[in-house]
Design a protein that fits this description.
Elements: H1 3-14, E1 20-24, H2 30-38, E2 43-46, H3 49-55, E3 64-67, H4 76-79, E4 85-89, H5 92-104, E5 109-115, H6 128-135, E6 146-153, H7 161-182, E7 191-193, H8 200-205, E8 210-213, H9 215-218
Parallel strand pairs: 1-2, 1-8, 2-3, 3-4, 4-5, 5-6, 6-7
Length: 222
C-alpha cells in the first residue's frame, strides 16, 4: 500500500474516536513527508531537533510540528520559531527554557508532560509526584509563553495486551487527575498522546487523543 493509502486507512479507523493522527516522520526524507502531506496529514512528529529544523523550511507552513523525542535545553532555540507542541516535557528547567525562547519569538509553544508508564527502565518520563511538584512550583505560574495541553507516554514494547491496556489506563488516570486538580478551567488541556504503530488500536480504545504512527505508514526501515 502507498503512504497515501495507509494514511487514509488510519484516518478512517480513527473517525468517530477521540484520536487524531500524528505521523512520525523521523529518519524519512522530505519527499516522503510531502507524500504524507499531500494525503492530508498535517501533524508530523520528529525525534531529533536538528532533523526537524532542517525539514521544516522544505514543507508547507501549515504543518503542525511535534517534537516527540527527548529535548535537551541547548536545542530548544532551534525549534522555538516554529514548533507547535513539545510532547516530551519532563522538567521545570526545560519548561523554563522553552518559555524563554518562545517569548523571544513572540510565540506560545504547547507542551505535553511525558510520564514514565512502561516497565522498561530506559524509557523516560515523570512520575505523578514529580509532575505535581512542577505544577505547584511558584515559578510555573509565571511562565506565559508555554502552555501545557496534556500528557504523553510510551508503553512497554510488548505484545501483552493486558499490560498495554494497564499502562494506557495509568496515563489516562494521570490526565484525569491533573485535569481535575490543576487544569479544570483550561480547555486547551485535552490531549492524551499514547499509542504507536504496534499498539495504537488499544490506545484508542483506552482514550488516546493523539496516536504517533510511523512504520504503519512508511514501512519499517531496514
Amino acid at each position: 500500500m502507498s503512504i497515501a493509502d495507509n494514511i487514509h486507512r488510519l484516518n478512517a479507523e480513527l473517525a468517530g474516536t477521540a484520536a487524531r493522527l500524528c505521523v512520525v516522520t523521523k529518519t524519512h526524507p522530505v519527499e516522503l513527508l510531502q507524500e504524507a502531506y499531500d494525503a492530508g496529514a498535517r501533524c508530523f512528529g520528529e525525534n531529533r531537533p536538528q532533523e526537524m529544523a532542517a525539514k521544516q523550511p522544505q514543507l508547507p507552513p501549515d504543518v503542525e510540528w511535534h517534537l516527540i523525542g527527548q529535548l535537551q535545553t541547548n536545542k530548544v532555540k532551534l525549534l522555538a520559531p516554529f514548533v507547535h507542541t513539545i510532547q516530551s516535557i519532563d522538567s521545570l528547567k526545560l519548561l523554563r527554557v522553552i518559555n524563554k525562547y518562545a517569548a523571544a519569538n513572540n510565540r506560545v509553544i504547547n507542551g505535553l508532560l511525558q510520564f514514565h508508564i512502561a516497565q522498561e527502565e530506559n524509557k523516560s518520563g515523570l512520575t505523578l509526584a514529580e509532575a505535581e511538584e512542577m505544577l505547584t512550583a511558584p515559578e510555573f505560574a509565571q511562565l506565559q509563553n508555554v502552555r501545557l495541553t496534556g500528557v504523553m507516554g510510551v508503553a512497554t514494547f510488548t505484545s501483552d495486551e493486558a499490560q498495554l491496556r494497564q499502562e494506557f489506563r495509568m496515563l489516562h488516570g494521570y490526565f484525569d487527575h491533573l485535569k481535575d486538580r490543576y487544569f479544570a478551567h483550561a480547555p486547551a488541556f485535552r490531549d492524551i498522546s499514547m499509542g504507536m504503530s504496534g499498539d495504537y488500536k488499544l490506545a484508542v480504545a483506552e482514550g488516546s487523543t493523539l496516536v504517533r504512527v510511523g512504520s504503519a505508514i512508511f514501512g519499517s526501515r531496514g
